[in-house]
Amino acid sequence: MLRRFVAPYKWNVVLNVLFNMLAAVLTLFSFAFIIPILNMLFRLDTTRYEYMEWGAASVKEVVMNNFYYYTDQMIVSRGASATLALLAVLLVLMTLLKTGTTYLSAYFIIPLRNGVVRDIRNRMYSKILSLPLGFFTNERKGDVMSRISVDVTELEASVMASIDMLFKNPIMIIVCLGMMIAVSWQLTVFVLILLPLAGLVMGKVGKRLKRKSLEAQQQWGTILSTVEETLGGLRVIKAFNAEKKMDRRFDAENQRFFRISNSIQRRYSLAHPMSEFLGTAAIAIVLWFGGTLILSGSSSIDAPAFIYYMVIFYSIINPAKELSKATYSIQKGMASMQRIDKILQSDNPIKDAANPEKLPVLSSAAAGQPVISFRGVDFSYTGETPVLKNVSLDVMPGQTVAIVGQSGSGKSTLVDLLPRFYDPCKGAVTVGGTDIRRLKVHDLRSLMGNVNQEAILFNDTIRANITFGVGEADDEQVEQAARIANAHDFIMATEHGYDTNIGDRGCRLSGGQRQRISIARAILKNPPILILDEATSALDTESERSVQEALERLMKGRTTLVIAHRLSTIAGADKICVMHDGEIVEQGTHASLMELGGHYARLVNLQKFS
């Protein structure tokens, strides 16, 4: 699952493997020469070695014989103490080389560890930005936040922290097994029967750990969702005296996470003692088996070689234990990777065409032809309950078309089809005569400016919010946009003017001020098509007047779609479309629709007396 993220760091892997191999060989080499030398020093080995010419035997035999010959000569000429001192110096040098190569193996794997985590975070954030709005209607916001934060952190702490062990320990085990085969292949066959049995026991526990870890991550996402909902709805919770209800809900969710976490940690803590027990049991069995062979005289190796064999075998135990622990960590982290992949591998139905058409020029040259056209559009969020039914509507250049109707009639859904937040299930939406599915999504949305009922601002300066989404804009352009939006005066009254930070979602500004900042943002973008989604419905009368003036300036000379709640604000629209149960049931001007005395007239009369 992680292979696709590791590919850019292949040279880090190559260098890590190279230095791990050097470290393993140096470890074995130090063991290989120390035991025979100690035998000679303490006169356990009384063999008299003679110098051997090259070619007299195999290279290995010549090298080993001559090494022991010179050692024997040094013991005779310099004494055992001096030889022991030289041996100590050689051990220090060998250890220096071994630890140096071990450090270099870690040095080259660190960019891989941190780089993969960085790449996953970047990929997840880019994917979240690219996914359609429909994806997030089925996902809880807290759970999505959990995946990009907690799950990625868990992946970093478990899988990526173990990746060095994953490369280093198998190399050490393979090199040691190779030497063990060279010393005694019969004993090694016996060992290779024991190790898989131990691995089978460890693997079963690891699989259960992965399953429990996935359950824990899902539960943590639920907890984060509850916290996010609590922070967003704190006013309602307090107003309805629901603190105890929410407290009980959170406590139940947290208690479940507590139980799952206990189960995970207990299984995870079992890894080290289980591997140590199995390793010690394996050593005891090999010690008994090999010792029996030597005592019976039927073994092909002598006692010193068997001691060396056992030293090598023992040197496998620690890497094997670390590898089993790393395997546990990886199993735990793979549960997080599954949740991460649910976002990364989600299909985005809003795609650019294979051969997109050029952006149409929306100008007076298109007079007589609609700028926007909905042709027999059907839409459903679930594929079952229809939200829009056979909707057809033409918007001419420079027209202001208002869409009105009761809540749930499909007004916002219809307008959301224009920038391709969703695609229609049937029919087509065209801009400048071109089906919007034949255009690049980025190009299509560059034609449009949005002002929504809730002014969506970011925790940044006023200037940054006005220039949001605009490539380059100088101070004069920003100020001009703010003046047109009736925002310049209150901006200059703030502490740092255009460089004032407005807080989370613009919390340091009033509703009317936030809305005028969003209008200034749309003015600076200067789009030919404007979408206003109940832009004044949440404002008081005084703020509404200021915002409405700004909107009228913004709408001048542009093709505009207006979703209106307060019908008094759209009386001057060129066309008013009345939606009911997903269909356009009436079209016309304010005067003609009032004269008709249908749905629109009833809505107007209801607002007059409300």
Percent strand? 5-15%
Subunit organisation of the chains: single chain
Gap between N and C termini:
60 Å
- Taking all Cα atoms into account, the compactness measure Rg is 37 Å
Largest sheet: 6 strands, mixed
Give the low-confidence spans.
Answer: none
**DSSP helix count?**
19
Number of β-strand runs: 10
What is the general shape? Answer: elongated
Secondary-structure element string = HHHHHHHHHHEEEHEEHEHHHHEHEEEHH
Mean pLDDT: 78
User: Which class best fits the helix and strand makeup?
Assistant: alpha/beta
Strand order in the sheet with the most strands: 6-7-8-3-9-10
Helix content: 55-70%
What does this protein structure show overall?
With 610 residues, the protein is an alpha/beta fold. 63% of the residues lie in helices and 9% in strands. It contains 19 helices and ten strands. Strand 9 (575-580) and strand 10 form a beta hairpin. The longest helix is centred in the middle third of the chain and has 54 residues, at 243-296.
Provide tags for this entry.
610 residues; alpha/beta; six-stranded mixed beta sheet; four-stranded antiparallel beta sheet; 19 helices; 10 strands; 9% strand; elongated
